[in-house]
Amino acid sequence: MSYHTTIIVGNLGKDPEMRYTPSGQAVTSFSVAVNDDYTSNNGEKVKRTIWYRVSAWGKQAEICNQYVKKGSKVLVEGRLTADPATGGPRIWTGQDGSARASFEISAQTVRFLSSRGDGAAAEVQADAAPDDAGGDPNIPF
Q1: Quick one: what percent of the chain has pLDDT higher than 90?
Q2: What is the pLDDT of residues 57-98, one digit of tens each?
Q3: What architecture (CATH level 2) is domain 6-125?
Q4: 59: helix, coil or strand?
Q5: For the whole prediction, is pTM greater than 0.85?
Q6: Residues contacting residue 48 through CB under 8 Å, at least 6 positions apart
Q7: What is the dihedral of CA 30, 36, 37, 39, to 10 degrees?
Q8: What is the CA angle 52-126-28, rounded to 5?
Q9: How far apart are CA 78 and CA 17, in angstroms?
């Protein structure tokens, strides 16, 4: 048996998008920007942003669609979804025809870190992600 989990904290790049699978299960997709600041060997401060595409399923998908929006800070815990062909980031073709890659996470837990007026953070945990948790590979960020 093997196990892996990934945890990221960042901000939504745009409002989430919810759809339903042919079997009627809700899936909400959203992109999360994670800042990765570091100091290079020559002492220069480097700022970069790593984007992750997150898929939430079932009741968690409905709650994420309702409560998070562009700019919301979230903590996501889940599994990386590898491209079946390469075992690495999911590969897809952009609108301009060029090859693109994205890091994708199937969420097990999503914590809302942005305050909602009362300052309380919320957590939504999935019961179980489906086997096809990678979602539709034709949907870019």
Answers
A1: 59
A2: 999 999 999 999 999 999 999 999 988 888 888 887 888 998
A3: Beta Barrel (2.40)
A4: helix
A5: no
A6: 35, 36, 37
A7: -160
A8: 50
A9: 19
The residue assigned the tokens 């999360």 is 32
Q: Is 116 exposed, middle or buried (0-12, 13-18, 19+ CB in 10 A)?
A: exposed
φ/ψ of 61, rounded to 5, equals -60, -45
Residue 32: predicted pLDDT: 96
Instruction: Give 131's DSSP letter.
Output: T
Instruction: Identify the CA nearest to 34 among candidates 47, 43, 25.
Output: 47
- Domains of the chain, by residue range, sit at 6-125
CB-based contact 127:58 (threshold 8 Å): yes
Integer Cα distance of 83 and 89 in angstroms: 6
Please check whether residue 129 is in contact with residue 57, taking contact to mean a CB–CB distance below 8 angstroms: yes
Please give the structure tokens belonging to residue 98. 């060029």
Pick from 29, 54, 34: which is nearest to 105 by CA?
A: 54
